[in-house]
Amino acid sequence: MSASRRLIVADMFSLVIFSFFVNGSIELLSGLTFAQMLQSRVTAIPVNMVIARPYGLFRDAIMRFGGAENGGFLRKTGLDITSYILFQVPVYTLILLSAGVATDAIMTAVAGQMVGFVLAARPYGLWLQFCRTRFTKVAVAA
Question: What percentage of residues in the chain have a pLDDT greater than 70?
């Protein structure tokens, strides 16, 4: 398998696994039963697989533009937060729109998710880089 295909697989794997454990934990803490959480996470797999590589490429571009290779923890964290919010907010909004959620409810939901996006951004960025390194044996800007 080519290195570019391994990166695609790494991006998909990292998002599916991260989403399963992080979002699944949030759903359980929010009161969903284990069966409901499992159904939700299984349903999310196709969406995660579709957006994983575009997000990985988007994050790479933000990291390059922001000079992550020459930056410390704070710069990399800020760039991860920036890329995660700029990418995930429109995706989340489109998902809510497609579910028929009213505009005012979407605005409330997105505002509520912002804290989660900020908290998840850097851990996901580190997990993504870890997976990419394991799948390709090549480090990409963290």
Answer: 96
